[in-house]
Amino acid sequence: MMRPKILLIALVISLAINLAMLGFAVARMIFEPTSFANAIHISPRWAYHLPDERRKELRPLLREQFKRARAQRLLLREKHKAVQRALAAEDFSEKSLNQALVELRSALQTSQSQSHTDFSGFVTQLTATERKDLAKELLRRSRPRDHSPPRHGQPDR
To answer: Measured between alpha carbons, how far is 76 from 106 in angstroms, rounded to an integer?
Structure first.
């Protein structure tokens, strides 16, 4: 008689824990922005120094740049995996490895070129004062490297 009560209590406790975990997961999905919204909020480091209103004006440009950068990152991951596969192959071939490295180098050069073009396009949209502020910001050693919201208006650390 005591054993069924213990099992029932354990089942109720387990169910309560599972419901609580499910509730936390659903709340997190509802109240946190989607990854795309986060990506738009996470401006490139060269946009951190701008006030929120100015970043909103430049948001269409930043979105396009983000889309291009995302496509480049996916391509780079694919090329890195090709190098890893060539390294780990049972029938290792120096020729295959070299070909994978050449393709990776080409993808890296394309990505860097696109990044420079995007940066240049962004900078042409800035005022002279914003460009000077950007130059100072890029020289700062303690730039924020995390993906937290930009720290415009807060004193330097």
So the answer is: 10
